Amino acid sequence: MNYIRFFRLIPRGKSMKDMLAILANAVLMLTYPILRHRRPMVRYSFSYGDLRFLCPGGFYGMLGLASSEPSVKNVLEVERSGDAIDVGANIGFYSILLSRFTGRVIAVEPDPFYFEYLLTNISVNGCTNVIPFRMAAWSAEEDLNLIRPLSGVPLDSHVMKGDAADNPSAKVRARTLDALARETGCHPSIVKIDAEGAEAEVLLGMQRVMTLDRPVIVFEARKETIHKCQEILSQKGFEVSMMPDGNYLAQPKRE
Questions:
Q1: Domains along the chain with CATH numbers
Q2: How high is the pLDDT of residue 186?
Q3: For the chain, what is the HEC assignment?
Q4: What's the pTM?
């Protein structure tokens, strides 16, 4: 199904070169199970409305389709007072989207590979209110290992503590969102978290933000972490519900 949807992305390429690159990605991914070649990383640019994004290849451009995570977009594309925090900003798609509807956007991305795309897309779209930080959001300030599970390719990269990580690709500095919010004077009304399994650690590091700012939180969670996330959020007075596309929405309980 993803492959069929991916072909619909071709007309969203910003140029004929981009359209051909998207087609090449689709063909490479379709043949990967048979030929077992290196995962495709043919970069291209795609559009979402009047926004433009450069991505490293693969399925990333599917974010530009209306059918991709529509419930997340419905929550994020709402005018809000206050600021926003995007944890796991990746190439900056949601950070830049949020910049249209909030004050400042704190964009957190630990992987230097994706961080360069984040900087490029911030510049291309003229987002003066997006502030990028190359770091990991965590429950404490410490050094973590950046893991790239597929032969060092920066797809599905994530961070882990040193005693739990095998074959780390790099070291990355981790900080709490509470510390980052104090440093920047950020008061988020919405927080998006896509931390590849580290979502509970991120939530543990934003206790002050949850108490004082009471933001809406949109997050991804794995089956092994969702119970812990729900427990943390419930203790801070948030209600958690699953969204139609499989992500989760946490909102402050009404008094």
A1: 1-62 (no CATH), 69-252 (3.40.50.150)
A2: 97
A3: CHHHHHHCCHHHECCHHHHHHHHHHHHHHHHHHHHCCCCCCCCEEEEECCEEEEECCHHHHHHHCCCCCHHHHHHHCCCCCCEEEEECCCCCHHHHHHCCCCCCEEEECCCHHHHHHHHHHHHHCCCCCEEEECCEECCCCEEEEEECCECCECCCCEEECHHHCCCCCEEEEEECHHHHHHHHCCCEEEEEECCCCCHHHHHHCCHHHHHHCCCEEEECCCCCCHHHHHHHHHHCCEEEEECCCCCEEEEECCC
A4: 0.89
